[in-house]
Structure formats: C-alpha cells, structure tokens
C-alpha cells in the first residue's frame, strides 16, 4: 500500500518519483542516479514552462543561474552557493514553499 499524497507537498510528477522509491521489491526501486536523472529532466521540463523574465535565476541571490532542485517539493530555485549556504544548518527549507527539504543538483 502506497502512502497517499499529502495536500500541498509537491506536484504530481515529483510525487510519482517519490512513490517509485516505495516499491516493495528493492530491484523495482530506482537508484539514486535514476532519481537524480528524473529530477533533472523534470527541472528542464518545468523550466520551459516558466514565464520569461527572471526564470532560471536563483530566488535568493537573484544573480546566479539555478542549479539545484529542492526535494521533495521539486522547486528549481537555487544556485550552488545559496544551496550550500541553506543546507549548512539543520532543517533546510525550500525558499518558495517553506517545505522541509534537501537540495539536489
């Protein structure tokens, strides 16, 4: 039995990636590299859907290009430097939705 998607946690695409990690048999679960590839592909797809302007720019420093995704919410919003700074303390949270997260390149 797979856990239901909690309201407001993430979009359907990110939830599908998360749900694939809960497969009963270990061989049916994706590898970390597989998850990373899916998230990068999702970031690329979602990035194309964002409006022109500041799309692709770090939401914290507003200077550098986005290189990191917040997991599990899926927001592509931070550059490498800001991701490192936000992850250095305990309890990192997404700067867009404030959900607890970690950041993946």
Keywords summarizing the entry:
105 residues; alpha+beta; Herpes Virus-1; 3-stranded antiparallel sheet; 3 helices; 3 strands; 33% helix; globular; protein kinase activity
Description of the structure:
This is RING-type domain-containing protein. Keywords: Metal-binding, Zinc, Zinc-finger. The protein is α+β, with helices and mostly antiparallel strands and 105 residues long. The protein starts with 11 loop residues before the first helix and ends with a strand. Strand 1 (68-71) and strand 2 (76-78) form a beta hairpin. The longest helix has 18 residues, at 32-49. The chain is built from three helices and three strands. The protein has helices spanning 12-20, 32-49, 80-87; strands spanning 68-71, 76-78, 102-104. The chain has a three-stranded antiparallel β-sheet with strand order 2-1-3. It has one domain: Herpes Virus-1. The radius of gyration is 14 Å and the shape is globular.
């Amino acid at each position: 039995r797979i856990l239901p998607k909690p309201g407001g946690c993430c979009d359907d695409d990110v939830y599908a990636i998360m749900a694939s990690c809960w497969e009963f048999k270990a061989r049916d679960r994706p590898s970390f590299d597989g998850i990373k590839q899916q998230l990068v592909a999702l970031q690329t797809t979602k990035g194309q859907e964002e409006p022109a302007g500041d799309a692709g720019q770090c939401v914290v420093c507003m200077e550098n290009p986005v290189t990191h995704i917040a997991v599990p919410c899926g927001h592509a919003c931070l550059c490498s430097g800001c991701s490192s700074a936000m992850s250095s303390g305990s309890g990192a949270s997404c700067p867009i939705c404030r959900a607890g997260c970690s950041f993946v390149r």
